[in-house]
Design the sequence.
């Protein structure tokens, strides 16, 4: 056999090796993460429930899901072990990563522009002077497109086509 006929099989075997290697690497990382759980750390289960670890055994984890609610899970059902900041942000809504109070949005818009809006505007100016044309015209401004009165339109009977016939 020549190298050209074996090349597709070699590429296929190489791709399979790389895929299984990455899957095993991810699986090992998940096992390491579950082994690093300690009482007091926040976790998220694969079902999406957030809780605090109370006790860690060989194959099970006892978690505290709320006041008086203790649940026993298999270690494999823990989807992620969260950092304290991440757990508090998700569960309690506490944000610790705010840089400073200066980054907060002010209550009024005048501080955003750096000028005082009331000092720039004259005292006798009104909003009617700044009328914006939106392209819509009043009915009085438009010329009448149809010269017939509206009453004449209602008196006309609809025309029958040749295929229409009255039922007897």
Sequence:
């Amino acid at each position: 056999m020549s190298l050209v006929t074996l090349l597709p099989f070699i590429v296929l075997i190489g791709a399979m090796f790389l895929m299984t290697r990455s899957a095993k690497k991810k699986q090992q990382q998940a096992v390491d993460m579950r082994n690093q759980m300690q009482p007091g750390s926040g976790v998220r289960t694969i079902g999406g429930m957030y809780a605090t670890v109370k006790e860690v055994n060989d194959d099970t984890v006892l978690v505290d899901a709320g006041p008086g609610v203790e649940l026993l899970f298999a270690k494999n059902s823990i989807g992620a072990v969260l950092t304290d900041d991440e757990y508090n942000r998700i569960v309690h809504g506490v944000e610790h990563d705010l840089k400073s109070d200066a980054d907060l949005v002010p209550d009024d818009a005048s501080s955003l522009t750096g000028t005082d809006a009331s000092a720039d505007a004259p005292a006798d100016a009104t909003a009617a002077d700044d009328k914006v044309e939106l392209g819509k015209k009043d009915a009085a401004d438009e010329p009448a497109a149809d010269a017939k009165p509206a009453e004449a339109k209602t008196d006309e009977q609809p025309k029958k086509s040749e295929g229409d016939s009255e039922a007897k």
Notes: The longest strand covers residues 50-56. Residues 3-35 form the longest helix (33 residues). The CA atoms of residues 44 and 80 lie 5 Å apart.
